Model the fold of this input.
Amino acid sequence: MPEPLTALITGGAGFVGSHLCRYFLEQGHPVICLDSYLTSSGGNVKALLGRPGFTLVQQDISITGAAKQFAPDQFPEKIGFVLHLASPASPKDYTKYPIQTLQAGSMGAQNALEIASAHGATFLLASTSEVYGDPEVNPQPETYWGHVNPVGPRSMYDESKRFAEAITVAYHQAKGLDVRIARIFNTYGPNMRLDDGRALPNLIPQALRHQPLTVFGDGSQTRSFCYVDDLVEGLYRLATWKLSPPAIVNLGNPQEVTILQLAQEVIAATNSHSPIVFRPLPQDDPKVRRPDISRAKQMLDWSPKVSREEGLRRTIAYFKEALRGAC
Ligand code: NAD
Ligand code: UDP
Done:
């Protein structure tokens, strides 16, 4: 059996990245976790330090020369997979870091593609359902081109990822690179930051503290939440399975829910006394979102297994611990 190839994971210390690092290690791959700690601290990968095959590199992937240290003459170990996850991902984070967000999808993506190219590695881009913008079709299939405001409050993220997709496809067209694009839909689970600002890292700690749950707008907007273990399994299959590039695949859980219902489920699951309060809906907040996962089912034999009830139970347990640590 061939030796499992090394995976370089940018953004590996973040929420999704830390689970992906662990999963690749568990499958026998050496892992290089590269992160600048822009929106993380290193705490998520602390448990992986010292594990055989795990290397942590603090580096900004977007700066000029970031690819040089991994050039084969500097870095003789063969890299088999480059997974580019580095990017602010929550609306709160990309609003705070608009330029770094655009750089992560442009210079950062190109540096990561250059590393993959130099090693003849498979490249996987962590893209997003945000490329569909505020969609006019629901659910969203991969063939949908999207409905994106190029100068709105979410544009730094949406356009960064749309550019990242375009340059990924260009490396395949121009250089024959084996590329795969995962359009990731809302994902949740342990290792999200308490101050991440996304729906569940806000709502669960609010409920656990018996504080009001903040629902934006009237809560009728929908999302479809995927538990992180399911996503990571999908990402691993997309990276490692024999597929014809460019393989562009939605990964998410098609169980759609309104944000108001989600808040009510969180209150019930935490036995909380919290009320729900309504706050203004941010501009351009997508009204609906639900993945069409027919392609993932067909190409990867993948579909999510963890119910929202079970995923919330595990995530609530994690946030209980995180709040204890924060006291
Ligand atoms: P996260 O903020 O927890 O992780 C992102 C990581 O990237 C952080 O550790 C951060 O420090 C690092 N990073 C940012 N810029 C960097 C740079 N220039 N160089 C090196 N490291 C850098 O976010 P996440 O939720 O884990 O998202 C990971 C990826 O998945 C992102 O690309 C995001 O766009 C994508 N994604 C996530 C979701 C989701 O629901 N979690 C949905 C769609 C897409
Ligand atoms: N949201 C909310 N209350 C919060 C945080 C988010 O009602 O405290 C809403 C937000 O307006 C959006 C949905 O929850 O409609 C999902 O937001 P999130 O930031 O998690 O991700 P998005 O899908 O918008 O990128």
